[in-house]
Amino acid sequence: MTAVQRNAPIDPVKLDRLAEVAIKVGLQLRPGQDLLVTAPSVALPLVRRIAEHAYKAGAGIVTPFLADEAITLSRYRHGHDASFDRAANWLYEGMAKAFSANTARLAIVGDNPMLLSGEDPVKVARASKANSIAYQPALEKIVNFDTNWNIIAYPSPSWAKQVFPDVPEDVAVAKLADAIFAASRVDQDGAVAAWEKHNAVLRERTEWLNGQRFQALKYSGPGTDLTIGLADGHEWEGGASTAKNGITCNANIPTEEVFTTPHCRRVSGHVVSSKPLSYQGTLIDNIQVKFEEGRIVEARASRGEEVLKKVLDTDEGAARLGEVALVPHSSPISKSGLLFFNTLFDENAASHIALGQCYSKCFVNGDKLTPEQIAAQGGNKSLIHIDWMIGTAETDIDGVHADGRRVPVMRKGEWA
Amino acid sequence: MTAVQRNAPIDPVKLDRLAEVAIKVGLQLRPGQDLLVTAPSVALPLVRRIAEHAYKAGAGIVTPFLADEAITLSRYRHGHDASFDRAANWLYEGMAKAFSANTARLAIVGDNPMLLSGEDPVKVARASKANSIAYQPALEKIVNFDTNWNIIAYPSPSWAKQVFPDVPEDVAVAKLADAIFAASRVDQDGAVAAWEKHNAVLRERTEWLNGQRFQALKYSGPGTDLTIGLADGHEWEGGASTAKNGITCNANIPTEEVFTTPHCRRVSGHVVSSKPLSYQGTLIDNIQVKFEEGRIVEARASRGEEVLKKVLDTDEGAARLGEVALVPHSSPISKSGLLFFNTLFDENAASHIALGQCYSKCFVNGDKLTPEQIAAQGGNKSLIHIDWMIGTAETDIDGVHADGRRVPVMRKGEWA
Ligand SMILES: [Zn+2]
Ligand SMILES: [Zn+2]
Ligand SMILES: [Zn+2]
Ligand SMILES: [Zn+2]
User: Fold this and answer.
1) Fewer CB near the last or first residue (10 Å), C or N of chain B?
2) Which H/E stretch holds residue B414?
3) Homologous superfamily of B12-183 in CATH?
4) Nearest residue of B to residue A102, measured between CA atoms
5) What UniProt keywords apply to this chain's record, in alphabetical order (chains A, B) (predicted)?
């Protein structure tokens, strides 16, 4: 018997390869390690592939946790007012406990970036705050690399329709799947080897930058004349990095950036954004800001300016930088020409900076520094961490040494 | 535009009614209460309806936890040996914490009852034991009714194919859906009112039985001549019951039984099973046992006898009774003529007894008794609790008073 079947829009071979890369490269999961997987419910086919590769690698217990967009919306549509200040504390506490007990963490992203754009922004902000507070202890263990972790993406239909609004849903899913597979280097055989090679390239960049020990980076380009001081004892990171449990992981798949911690009191000048920023259902476009002594003192945007200003007001550190990252204009994600509305991809399309919290990992011996030492060395502290793109095909970047000597780092958006 | 669509096998109106009954009757969820929902991943359509009714009822946070059969099988097929002694302790501890913090609990059953029948029974037993140990603190809070809880069923395809092996899958799902909806009293309008009426009928039965204060029940029928002593201070339960948090819930939907605690040292005689028992992928059929002083001293089965004997050997209490339940032979589930391979349904098709752990709730002031007092009054203790059917259309049951006076309770399987 035979039946006419619509072609599945997501290539099962590449999907399986993505799962394999997540376990072998992203996490380098060790025999006996438990694994917590969070994912949108539609990503179940990928979660199943992940579980199989995890068990083959000797996983203890794989615990999948599926969130569902319809259930999230149900809360906004039908929930009583008091619901929006609540969070599942028992669950987040449990996660923190799991990470302390050497459980690895895999997050599959793929939610509709505009899911909450039609909901009451006050409720969205309240729910987000309640969640942030409850999640904080678990998140700290991730950000500080207590355990090995990894983020990958699944081409959910609702996300695909945002990236490709003009084509039917299954075509959009197929296109987004292809873009994810290409960016994640699983579009051809030998994906694990391709990642080793890519990690080596990124390591070469970070080693060169760490050897230079620049005091500042100087950006110039259309609308941009910016000096970003680097934190004392900063360290450049990129690609693979070793968690405190001794396991080397690739926290982001894809990743094209090398990044470090700017000095949060030594940034000055003007900069304009080179791509729109998608933030909690709002597009913020054509950002223009002026820094003085590390702080944004003027901010404008052609779209979403109010949301931007609210973000900058979150706390004292929200108007200062916590990350500076270099990405060549020719990066594969940049070349795709797509806006993904998702930081995992968009931050790898251009050199960028991030408002808010810095990474302690981006300091020499960062895991031994106290919060006070990090602050003294120029590390920023905030509840937020928002990456936004400033690199273009016209961007020149110089490294500035303590004696004022300047070394070309990037020319016309490419490594010099 | 129009398109030929296959009719959905599960009626969405009745599915929504089942969700409404679960929230309003099963849980009587209170405004501000959080809700933990566990379900097979295929039951997501029902979980979504549940979440909506929960939020409309004022739920705090609804946390769905979806398990997936393919991921479970993946562990057995690919997991290293050490995996089978592990459990997600952090998650079960979190659940116990949630129940202590007044979170309500909804379990949706619907897994393939034969899922693990092809897997290594030793691994199945190891994994099951590891899970039982990890889940114990949370389970105790459920069994002791610390919070309001409820179990309902979803017609999963893999389960439907077990119940209706001879029809195509979507027909099987439609048939199982209809059977679940009818048994759960959501096949017509006014389901909430129908449950109030049904609860009143069950309450009338328990009040009569509690007024009689029988010392024992005497069963006779083909192959059966059994005396079941009742525990000192036993209390009959059935339908709605009030949890320690003050909320009246219907823990099982459907439910047709009234039940209490037998005296675990005062059961004697012979009894045969009237329906096959489905236990962890094995069918145990035509059970014949002999009790002496509460303990099973002889046990046979035409099928699955080895599994039965292993079960009876689990611990000291596994060969003694922890529950005795009365269900008329004319119960709607009995009339359906179906074997569901699921206790939630099958135990409501006939009068039954359960091996193993008793319910503290089935004692007068049970929530104030210590485990030692419960044991002294005749309550049984075991890691297992397995219901099996003994009622038939020929079964007569008498209540026996302390003075030997006998009162007809059931005649030919119906209330006398
Ligand atoms: Zn970055
Ligand atoms: Zn960043
Ligand atoms: Zn029962
Ligand atoms: Zn029972």
Assistant:
1) N
2) strand B414-415
3) Thermophilic metalloprotease (M29) (3.40.1830.10)
4) B90
5) Aminopeptidase, Hydrolase, Metal-binding, Metalloprotease, Protease
User: Which neighbouring-strand residues pair with B271?
Assistant: B289
Q: Do B58 and A80 touch (CB under 8 A)?
A: yes
Q: What is the pLDDT along chain B (416 residues), one digit of tens a residue?
A: 444 444 568 999 999 999 999 999 999 999 999 999 999 999 999 999 999 999 999 999 999 999 999 999 999 999 999 999 999 999 999 999 999 999 999 999 999 999 998 999 899 989 988 998 999 899 989 988 999 999 999 999 999 999 999 999 999 999 999 999 999 999 989 999 999 999 999 999 999 999 999 999 999 999 999 999 999 999 999 999 999 999 999 999 999 999 999 999 999 999 999 999 988 778 899 999 999 999 999 999 999 999 999 999 989 999 999 999 999 999 999 999 999 999 999 999 999 999 999 998 999 999 889 999 999 999 999 988 999 999 999 999 999 999 999 999 999 999 99
Q: At what angle do helices B12-21 and B191-212 cross, to 10 degrees?
A: 40
Residue B103: list chain A partners with CB under 8 A: 90
Cβ separation B55–A95 shorter than 8 A: no
Ligand closest to Cα of B380 equals 4
Q: Which of A32, A86, A98 sits opposite B90 (nearest CB)?
A: A98
Of B64, B74, B91, the CB nearest to A71: B64
For the whole model, what pTM was predicted?
0.93
B150 in Cβ contact with B107 (< 8 Å): yes
d(CA B178, CA B184): 10
Tell which residue, B244, B195, B237, B173, has the closest CA to residue B22.
B195
Residue spans of the domains in chain B: they are 12-183, 213-235+257-415
3-state SS, residue B276: coil
Could you tell me what percentage of chain A is helix, strand and coil, using 3-state DSSP and rounding each to the nearest 5?
40, 25, 35
Strand, helix or coil at A63?
strand
Complex ipTM > 0.90: yes
